[in-house]
Input
Amino acid sequence: MMRWRQALSGAAVMVTAAALTGCALGPQMREQPVSYDLGPPRSHGQLNPGIPATLLVPEVSAPSWLDGQGIIYRLSYENAARPQAYAQSRWAAAPAALLTQRLRSRAAAAGGSGVVSGSDGARADYALRIELEDFSQSFHAPNASGVAVRARASLVNLADRTLLAQRVFTVERAAPTPDARGAVAALAAASDDMVERLLEWTGERLQAARSK
Output
């Protein structure tokens, strides 16, 4: 009887020690969360025809499912209507905020009469309003995915509050790897392409308006 109690007591000590060891090692063994942005801006020459006016670029808007910092993906081969977010990977800011920063920076570097955000109270000639409609990764198969960046652009004449032009832009790219890192790389490249197309279109519309 005594030996049985000693054995039971020893087993309890071993279980307790194992549990404490597990608590100590557990957090160290878990994957750490990672945050991503769109990376450093690419080097570009000034746009031609450029932006021949002072341009107001408000914050890019986005639907509620894109309003957080999650990196969104869809398993299109199972249920394309179900957006999901990676558990351990996220954006450093919401996609709309990242795209706003990229667009303002590139527009300012493109030349013209300058870019204002609206918060500084400076006057502008036209407003370029962007509504983000998609910024996600889609898996067509477990090991094959691509990304899509889609946005609706509205160019507004601030002098008379009229809509000068409107267009939907879509950029799609294959993801280099079927994971969050691949999604980030592809979405960053697609975002840069989107910004270039937006500003080229804006410059063309403004040049056409001024030539009338």
